[in-house]
Amino acid sequence: MNFTKSFFASVLGSLTAFGLLFVILLLIISATASIFNASSGSVTLSDNSILNLDLNLPIVERPPVFDEIQNILGLEDQVIGLPNILSAIDIASENPKIKGISLRSDFISSGWAQTNSIRRALKDFKSKGKFIYAYGDVFTQKGYFLASVADSIFLNPAGNMEFKGLASEILYYKDFQDKYGFKMEVVRHGKYKSAVEPFLENEMSNENKYQISSLLNDIWSTLREEISASRGLLPETLDEIATNKISIPQDAISSRLIDGLAYEDAFIEKIKTRLELDKDDKLKKVSVDRINRTNKSYDASIKDRIAIVFAKGTILYGEGSESIIAQGVFVETIEELANDDWIKAVILRIDSPGGSALTSELLWRAIEKLKESKPVIVSMGNTAASGGYYIAAGADHIFADPLTITGSIGVFATLPNAKGFLDDIGIQSESVETHPNAIGYSPYQNLSESYEKQMKRGIESVYDTFKQRVIDGRNLSSKEVERLSQGRVWSGKQALDIGLIDGLGGLKDAIKLAAEISEIDNYNVIEYPKFEENLENMLSGITPSIHNKNRLENLLPEQILLILKGTQANVSLPYIQTLLPFELIIN
Q: Cα–chain-centroid distance for residue 100?
């Protein structure tokens, strides 16, 4: 018995010691990574180098806080932040030792707006008289759009590429709900025909087809114009190619979409030839991280600062995280920035389809208070729609990419109801109430007429408030905002034409304007929110690759996914939502 106790005590002691050692190791790695990153400016480059821009990685708006630790331990696929990419291209364009860029974008994971911002940076790079060579084993349509900016594009002889135009596919759930008895109870303002129709109909309404078609055609026109200018092809020719498709690699050459077929080793030899290197000379490649470390990212002698607040993900009620926008950490951050005299301007970088109406209003209010002390500029990412637009509407200036999805000014509520399913399996729900409406909403009973009426009143009130925020923020008439609202989505280019934004551009343009408005020439750029650096957060970041969406999720409605995410994130999910009407994936 004593032996057993001693044995388990020894095991427990060993495990505890190992755990403490692991914690200490993580802290040492964290400190080392911090020192390593803080030593910016100490890296030197060789003459005749190229920037190795491999974008076949998960690309995120902001790198995870503990990305360095994950990479050092080899426990996570590398994740690269969009600001890091743009910074590397910008630095490379000014560094005389960098002669060109080797670009890979076969399966680029960024959204259309993010991809376009990278493409703009590459165009600026070329304008400095430097070259870009692109290579792919495969080119997705988005990957090709980015690669088309290159001076020369090469495809693997055994590879393939997409060039087919744009499409968006939406699933409809009415028959599924009727068959299995699990449905979403929908309460909406009477005019929002397309907002929640996947739960009410079996097919797309004409109104919805029109708005999605308008969006896709506008985005395609931007892609076509950019590719046309880069490749010297007529827009009409590109439409013909998209219609006829690319079946084999040789089609890509004959249509002049690419410049040649080559294996990767032959591609490297072509770059060497461009650099006038001998065959035996080693190609000097510089990574994104390395070139970023050639520039000092923070100057302690400069007190003036511009803050970038990254607001990424669904808007939910709760504390918030790097992938969830909630009032907890975000309102606290905004209030801190308002009281920080060194912060001269705030840029709100939004990439969100919206979510909780209540949280959107709380964030809007915090931003309004912030505007009393310093300018607030919005930079929209891939999506800033519904609640994402709500929190942007009051900003002093709004930038969007031409390919950003925005607008969707509308409100609705969806409530899960399992009564039909429970009836089928023999489960009944009974309730006892002190008052006629005491039960309120229950997922096990049909919505009562009085509760539905109550929800409609709430939705109409939120919708009126939402519209008023847009009226005041954008200086538009009530009639004009009503015409632009009702849940309709717009591209960034369309949003500029109708007055929902102020200009087309990316994060770099927002920073430049913030400095001009604040009348500062020298400044540091600081990223927010600052998430607590504790062991729990370290370990929570050490997970399998996060960029590939679970295939099962592709079959689930956005509202059901929101409920699952809300449960997992320990946040509350108010029913009234300012959310994109459906998950709009453009392929």
A: 28
Which helix (H) or strand (E) segment holds residue 406: the answer is strand 405-407
β-pairing, 489-491 vs 524-528, is unpaired
Would you say 353 and 388 are in contact if contact means Cβ atoms under 8 Å apart? yes
Predicted confidence at residue 517, as pLDDT, reads 97
All CATH 3.90.226.10 domain ranges of the chain, comma separated, are: 43-164+245-292, 305-533+550-579
How would DSSP label each residue in 294-318?
Answer: TS-S--TT---EEEEEEEESEE-BS
**Where do runs of H (alpha helix) occur along 475-525?**
478-484, 492-498, 507-518
Which run of H or E residues covers position 186?
A: strand 183-188
Whole-angstrom Cα distance, residue 134 to residue 146? 9
3.40.50.2000, 3.90.226.10, 1.10.390.10, 3.40.50.1820: CATH of 43-164+245-292: 3.90.226.10
| CA–CA dist 415, 417 (Å, integer) | 6
Q: Give the model confidence (pLDDT) of 120-145 as tens digits.
A: 999 999 999 999 999 999 999 999 99
Residue 365 Cα distances to 262, 277, 280, angstroms: 56, 59, 63
Lowest-pLDDT choice from 74-88, 439-453, 551-565: 551-565
| Mean per-residue pLDDT over the chain, rounded | 86
Task: Please tell me the distance from the alpha carbon of residue 309 to that of residue 303, in angstroms, as a whole number.
Answer: 18
Kindly give the pairing relationship between strand 489-491 and strand 376-385: unpaired
Which residue type, as a one-letter code, is found at position 574? Answer: P
Q: Which residues does 172 contact at the CB level (< 8 Å), separation at least 6?
A: 197, 198, 201, 202, 203, 204
pTM, entire model: 0.86
pLDDT at 196: 83
Main-chain phi, psi angles of 203, to 5 degrees? -150, 165
Q: Which residues, in sequence order, are bridge partners of residue 577?
A: 356, 412
pLDDT at 335 over 90: yes
Angle CA(351)–CA(355)–CA(357) in degrees, nearest 5?
Answer: 120
Enter the tokens of residue 79: 């994740």
Position 569 confidence tier, pLDDT thresholds 50, 70, 90:
very low
Q: How far is CA 46 from CA 95, 133, 207, 282, 435, in A?
A: 11, 19, 58, 12, 79
Lowest-pLDDT range, 110-114, 193-197, 253-257, 564-568? 564-568
Question: What CATH number was assigned to the domain covering residues 305-533+550-579?
Answer: 3.90.226.10
pLDDT of 18: 57
Q: Are 292 and 91 in contact (CB under 8 A)?
A: yes
**Contact criterion met (CB below 8 Å) for 258 and 248:** no
